[in-house]
Amino acid sequence: MQSDDLKDLILEAAKIIARAKLVLSFTGAGISAESGIPTFRDSGGLWEKYRVEDVATPEAFMRNPKFVWEFYLERKKKIKEANPNPAHYALADLERILRESGKSFYIITQNIDNLHREAGNKNIIELHGNIWYTKCSNSFCEKSRPFYDPRTSPEEYEDFPPRCSSCGSLLRPHVVWFGEPLPEDAINESFRLASLADVVIVVGTSGAVFPAAYVPYITREHGGKVIEVNIRTSSLTSISDVFLMGRAGEILPRIVEEVKRALK
Ligand code: BJW
User: Fold this and answer.
1) Which tens digits make up the pLDDT trace of 92-140?
2) Positions marked catalytic
3) N or C: which end of the chain has fewer CB within 10 A?
4) CA of 24 to the centre of ligand 1 (A)
5) pTM of the model
């Protein structure tokens, strides 16, 4: 993409955002890549090193909870060392300036790393859980409600894999694996907002995983615009009104600067 073309597209994206009353950002692993957290499907991504069937299904967890816990503790360690990057901070800035202009902004994220919250965003919907929470795998247990769990190594647990102190069932990370339903409130609220939004800014996702990836389709179906930021085309590019090819940490701060200028 020529730099003049990119500049024009950034201006076009900023104009759409500045005109909107309700703005969403639908984010995926690519937004945290510049914080040093691996994505799933890129080269060098998690699914190159691990098989989904071994670490990201309820069956994998029942078969080998120790292996699945070790996978998540390694990721917790890496995420603990990570900080939000300029892309996260740009979205925090955007929430603040839109709020000050009487508009609304929500992040709908597939990420479990908590970096949007650390960057300062307040309106966040987490579709696939949060790695810093653990819950009892027995849905009838009082501890099936997620609780904060900062531990990052097996030695920090009394037993490993850890068991529930209340009912003795296995504890599990509070994330959504393949074949599991997404948290009902989170997906319902996301679809509701998507149907009302004037624009959704899609950042760093392959758009391969459903039902999460319906979010931009719903916005488009209801007449809203779709802006995409990605280092390459994704399965959502064909429904994007504006596609900005580049790193989220470079593109988003430029868009937000232009939105500020437009709203002055
Ligand atoms: C950059 C960048 C930079 C890099 N700047 N960009 C249709 C409808 C409903 C369901 C299905 C359906 N079709 C199939 C399904 C089933 C299944 C599914 O979607 N399968 C597909 C893979 C085919 N879905 C499910 O099973 C879901 N549950 C469900 O359907 O339940 C139904 C049910 C109802 C009632 C009872 C029982 C069941 C659950 C899906 C759960 C997904 N979980 C994971 C793991 C979460 C925990 C964890 O992190 O460990 O979620 S999988 C993984 O993929 C993770 C992610 O959130 C998700 C999406 O990945 P993401 O974020 O897009 O990452 P990548 O790597 O794919 O892409 C990164 C992008 O960034 C790339 O495009 C790069 O180019 C870009 N990038 N650097 C900008 N610097």
Assistant:
1) 999 999 999 999 999 999 999 999 999 999 999 999 999 999 999 999 9
2) 128
3) C
4) 18
5) 0.98
For residue 151, the Cα-to-chain-centroid distance in whole angstroms is 22
Report the atom number in ligand 1 closest to the C-alpha of 41.
Answer: 66
- Of 210, 217, 238, the one to substitute when testing ligand 1's pocket (max ligand atoms within 8 A of C-beta) is 210
What is the best residue among 78, 209, 250 to mutate for testing ligand 1's pocket, by most ligand atoms within 8 Å of CB?
Answer: 209
Q: Give domain 1-37+84-128+182-264's CATH superfamily.
A: TPP-binding domain (3.40.50.1220)
38-81+131-175: which CATH topology?
SIR2/SIRT2 'Small Domain' (3.30.1600)
* Domain spans in the chain, listed from the N-terminal domain onward: 1-37+84-128+182-264, 38-81+131-175
Output phi, psi for 229, to 5 deg.
Answer: -120, 120
Query: In the chain, how long is the greatest CA-to-CA distance?
Result: 62
C-alpha 76 chain-centroid distance: 16
**Stretches in the chain below the pLDDT threshold 70:** 1-2
The residue contributing the CA closest to ligand 1 atom 15 is: 210
Residue spans of alpha helices (H) in the chain: 3-19, 30-33, 46-49, 52-55, 58-63, 65-81, 86-100, 115-119, 184-196, 214-221, 248-263
Using CB distances shorter than 6 Å, the residues near ligand 1 are 28-30, 33-34, 39-42, 45, 56, 110, 112, 128, 175-181, 204-206, 208-211, 229-232, 234, 247-248
